[in-house]
Design brief:
heterodimer; A: mainly beta; six-stranded mixed sheet; four-stranded antiparallel sheet; 12 strands; B: mainly beta; seven-stranded mixed sheet; 11 strands; globular
């Protein structure tokens, strides 16, 4: 079974600064998908960024980028130029592409606070 | 395009009662999955449906059940409610196994 670990329960960053959230995972599969989801206090889970394991290039979405290290099974999220609206719970998640096993396995989350 | 819609948003039940939660996926999405979110256990997978068939089930007791209709709408049911069933129940839809999941706002269940 796959597991996802987020070792930072809470993080804080000054507005406009850069912060990196850590995520490691364990799997025996060679092909899979990794995601970062954001859950603001309004609680709707929003996709931030996704990474396909077969792609070596790290995914980027505007101010959000990942550092995907497949051999190390590490998938960190970097948020540049942090904004007040970035304050939320961030969940790292793993998804298998195998038929019948496409569930998301989530980490425990990192609560990000933005300091004005 | 409308997002994932979950109803009701909030509900309060007492122990022993049952509850039914509804989820309407994004138009065109045929896969619907359900997750339970609690402060203690985090986000846990309940089950996934595709074309009216349950393809995957999480480690929950038989009191938790679900179904999917031909229009891809899904319902989940919890019978004989226990205090520990108090949680945010999230529904998500996707096009298929390679697509990202889009989540609804959730149904907040409180069991007294």
């Amino acid at each position: 079974a796959q597991t996802v670990t987020q070792s930072q329960p809470e993080m804080s960053v000054q507005e406009a600064e850069t912060v990196t959230l850590s995520c490691t995972y364990d799997t025996s599969e060679s092909d899979y998908y990794l995601f970062w989801y954001k859950q603001p206090p309004s609680r709707q889970m929003i996709l931030v960024i996704r990474q396909e394991a077969y792609k070596q290039q790290n995914a980027t979405e505007n101010r959000f980028s990942v550092n995907f290290q497949k051999a190390a099974k590490s998938f960190s999220l970097k948020i540049s130029d942090s904004q007040l609206g970035d304050a939320a719970m961030y969940f790292c998640a793993y998804r298998s592409p195998n038929f019948g096993n496409e569930k998301l396995t989530f980490g425990t989350g990192t609560r990000l606070t933005i300091i004005p | 395009k409308a997002g994932v819609t979950q109803t009701p948003r909030y509900l309060i039940k007492t122990r022993g009662q049952q509850v039914t939660l509804s989820c309407s996926p994004i138009s065109g999405h045929r896969s619907v999955s359900w997750y339970q979110q609690t402060p203690g256990q985090g986000l846990q997978f309940l089950f996934e449906y595709f074309s009216e068939t349950q393809r995957n089930k999480g480690n929950f007791p038989g009191r938790f059940s679900g179904r999917q209709f031909s229009n891809s709408r899904s319902e989940m049911n919890v019978s004989t409610l226990e205090l520990g069933d108090s949680a945010l129940y999230l529904c998500a839809s996707s096009l298929g196994p390679t697509g990202e999941l889009f989540f609804g706002e959730g149904s907040r269940l409180t069991v007294l």
